[in-house]
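> call design_seq(struct)
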């Protein structure tokens, strides 16, 4: 198994800066990580290798919250997707018995890794800690950085496209709400706007399109990227935040349900949360784009 080495050819100043950036002590319990890996490899998935990347190993931050960001590379598409696998982990490695409660699983095929050069895959492979590797697989870190100028241009294009669509829908929702008092259109446009914003966030961070338009699933996939986003939509023991399920129902019922109705006060709450989330997402996307731009130089 290969040790965690930086593959990029850096000058001495860069090397010292990288060494200083490494955490003085581990930010996670190796025994806890080993239990998670054992669960993932013992009948759940059949991976070639598993990488822990991001904040916990002192790499380029991925999750803002403390979370196990795990890239799981498989040869064939597995029986369980990332949602089902997270459920299995909750059963076998309960949250109440973990020091780091959040786990993000990115299950991708080996062919996808070999044919795509995204910042997400580069950071994981260049900086990640190898937690598991099949004996027959020879894991290699990237020898050269990716083309960050191209990555920046691509992410910026998607950011401008989907952010614009989301903002336009928010404006239409507000007009329908305040001027015509059309709750159906206001609800539908607000929900569609949130989906566009989530697609924006996903593409900027991951370099690929998300395969779902369900705001509940999209939030579960991306919530740890920003603790502010978690605060906007996550339930707490003090308050039941039900905006995301309601947005999902808006998408399903407002275009077709003849009896669709919602109180204006409730809708105003949901719309305000969508507007707040839009600002959070725009800010985090901007920071990520700046990182790509700096690395391209």
């Amino acid at each position: 198994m290969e040790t965690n080495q930086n593959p990029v050819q850096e000058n001495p100043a860069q090397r010292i800066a990288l060494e200083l950036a490494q955490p003085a002590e581990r930010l996670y319990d190796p025994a806890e990580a080993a239990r998670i890996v054992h669960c993932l490899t013992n009948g759940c998935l059949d991976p070639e290798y598993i990488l822990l990347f991001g904040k916990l190993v002192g790499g380029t931050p991925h999750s803002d919250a403390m979370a196990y960001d795990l890239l799981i590379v498989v040869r064939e598409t597995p029986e369980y997707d990332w949602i089902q696998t997270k459920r299995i982990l909750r059963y076998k490695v309960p949250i109440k018995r973990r020091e780091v409660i959040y786990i993000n699983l990115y299950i991708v095929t080996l062919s996808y890794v070999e044919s795509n050069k995204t910042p997400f895959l580069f950071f994981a492979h260049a900086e990640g800690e190898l937690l598991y590797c099949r004996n027959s697989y020879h894991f290699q870190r990237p020898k050269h950085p990716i083309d960050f100028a191209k990555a920046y241009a691509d992410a910026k294009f998607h950011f401008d496209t989907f952010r614009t669509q989301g903002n336009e829908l928010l404006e239409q929702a507000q007009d329908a709400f305040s001027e015509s008092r059309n709750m159906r259109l206001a609800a539908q446009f607000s929900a569609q706007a949130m989906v566009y914003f989530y697609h924006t966030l996903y593409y900027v961070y991951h370099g690929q399109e998300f395969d779902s338009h369900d705001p509940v699933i999209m939030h579960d996939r991306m919530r740890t990227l920003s603790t502010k986003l978690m605060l906007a939509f996550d339930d707490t023991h003090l308050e039941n935040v039900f905006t995301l399920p309601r947005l999902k129902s808006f998408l399903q019922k407002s275009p077709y349900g003849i009896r669709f109705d919602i109180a204006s006060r409730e809708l105003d709450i949901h719309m305000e949360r969508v507007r707040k989330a839009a600002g959070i997402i725009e800010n985090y996307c901007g920071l990520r784009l700046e990182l790509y731009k700096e690395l391209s130089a």
